[in-house]
Amino acid sequence: MSLDIVLKNAKIFTSSGPIEGDIGIKDGKIVKIGDIQEQYIKTIDLSGKYVIPGLIDGHTHMEFPFMSEITADDFYYGTKASIAGGVTTIVDFVTPSHGQDLISAYEKWRGNADPKVVSDYGLHMIIREINSNVLEQIPSVINKGVVSFKLFMAYKNELMLPDGDLYKLIKKISDFGGVTGIHAENGEIINELIQEFLKEGKVEPIYHYYSRPDILEIEATNRIASIASLVGKDVKMYIVHTSTGEAVDIISNYRKMGYKFFNETTPHYLTLNTEMLKRPDAFRYVMSPPLRSDEQRTKLWYRLASGDIFTIGSDHCVYSDLQKKRHMEKVPPFNEIPNGVPGTETILPLLYYFGVKKGIISMERFIEVTSLNPAKLFGLYPQKGTIMPGSDADFAIIDPEKKVRISPDVLHSNIDYTIYDGVEVEGWNVMTMRRGEIVYEEGQVIGKKGSGKYIPGKTPIMM
Ligand code: DUC
Ligand code: ZN
Ligand code: ZN
Ligand code: ZN
């Protein structure tokens, strides 16, 4: 057998430790790891570099219609940013409009994504209401490879579901082997707090934080864990973008009792704090749940290191300054600022530098939460999320010594700011390979628009 490409002299890292040797690639797949004697067409010398599995960003919102705006990153810009950040697969949220059936929403998302994606991608399904035949459609959605769902306990009048509907949906999704993702914040109380602040004329971005206190995430996490536990031990559930240590602990305790409940967090909760909501450009930092205290940040790092946090997703949900300001001169009241921040391109450098280089998490844990675990959770494993023969040749190649000062100039999103402006990191993705093809090198995304593929999810694996 003659190989297409051999990656030579790199340090290869996997979730179970480093491996010695070269990687042989044929037809986009890894065929051999070790001492390679076979003939090959091309060799790439990666001395001094680290090869890790391509990241899986299991939480993006490209072309997302939300809070009267559609996110600025479409599937082309958004996945260009992913690819530049070493993310070879995203899992994006199909968002049906009011009254739309789930299958036509799925088809719309495929139609949006297929001609534009540079990375590979999978899909989750948001369910915002139980209209006529949503419950009956769940098995067909799963048959399309959409095996994970997202339900909201917040965003009253937009996405929030009452407890009865949450119960019914978790039960149905679970009957068909799907995973339920939950946005856990108490939307009723948030709505009350927002009205109280607005009445008092308190409209600045910092009131976004005061209207969504830690306890409302903790309460909602407790409530949904209780509801899901009632459905039974087969329920597979994960709490998305967890921002408090206490919410992680609730879920870990259920896991100790045998439940398949997990947490995701995002790099922004690990690296930024509430002070950002006092800056002149505070409107850029409005996302939900809100940025929290340094005490919570520290709690999250500890729980990431211990394995209590299962995955990292970016919640990439980008709005331009104009959109954040709702096309007005002045910053609108905090509750009218579209919620969301960029993030898919900076998962790797932030987690590698502030986590691995600073000695807080191991390289193995970094890989586990950024590729192996999301692949398992979203039914993409072993095609994705690991370096072994038979898997797709998806790699992020890190120069561990490369120093970069983060600015919009080094990033690829369709906006002209970053929430990490001026942050200095050491360790940067310098090459991305997707199914054996170099799609990013020397700061340039060279992967073609539409060259990414839809990867249908299979049965989720949760230990
Ligand atoms: N939170 C955000 O900040 N943006 C998108 C949706 C969400 O839950
Ligand atoms: Zn509706
Ligand atoms: Zn959410
Ligand atoms: Zn989200």
From TrEMBL:
GO MF, one annotated term: metal ion binding
Keywords: Hydrolase, Metal-binding
UniProt xrefs under Gene3D superfamilies: Metal-dependent hydrolases, Urease, subunit C, domain 1
Keyword Metal-binding: yes
GO cellular component: cytosol
Keyword Signal recorded: no
One family name in Pfam for this protein: Amidohydro_1
Source taxon at top rank: Archaea
Residue intervals of the Amidohydrolase-related domain: 50-439
Cofactor dependency: Zn(2+)
UniProt family annotation: Belongs to the metallo-dependent hydrolases superfamily. Hydantoinase/dihydropyrimidinase family.
Protein name (Swiss-Prot/TrEMBL): Dihydropyrimidinase
Annotated organism of origin: Acidianus brierleyi
Gene: hydA
